[in-house]
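Example 3.2
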Amino acid sequence: MDLSEGGPFVIDGPRDRPFNPFRSLRSDSAKAIAAEVLNELQNYEAYFKLRKRKRLEADQATLEQMVDAIVADLIHRALTVPDGWVAVPLSKRVLGRRTRYGSPVLSKTLPDVLKCLSSVELEFAELHKGIINDFAPRNVRSTMRAGKRLLTRIEKFGVKLTDLRMDQGEEFIILKRAKQSRWDGGEWIRLQR
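Structure, written as tokens:
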């Protein structure tokens, strides 16, 4: 595949920004969109028998948080850069790592959820899977953006950037300022990532 010919993997517009799993929905209208997406996702899973048993309570909570974060980030990108894409990790090796700064949204089930949301039946997201290219200087990351059905709901509900927020689960980075004397303890400086 010659990447110079164009297609979904060539960056000719705004650069793809990374997926932010800490973005969430603030308003009732935005939460109604996420609830509808979650309901249709679970109906899709039931119809195609993608699950053999019911999710545990903790897994259901993680799924709800995941759908909330995906919908919020896709809405944010659609409102700020309408034709922009969001780079999202789909590698189970990357998603399997647990760190104190990580989000439960970045779990091994994320690729399956995105695959369902981007299916022909749901069309809440568009997903272009990345490629590992041994002959080019770099690989191409997987990207996503709001699908047709999500875009119509954004317009229908009149969702704006004020309907979104950053989740409180994101950890803060705390720094100390430089000491001004030998006896100075330095003050704590609180910065948010």
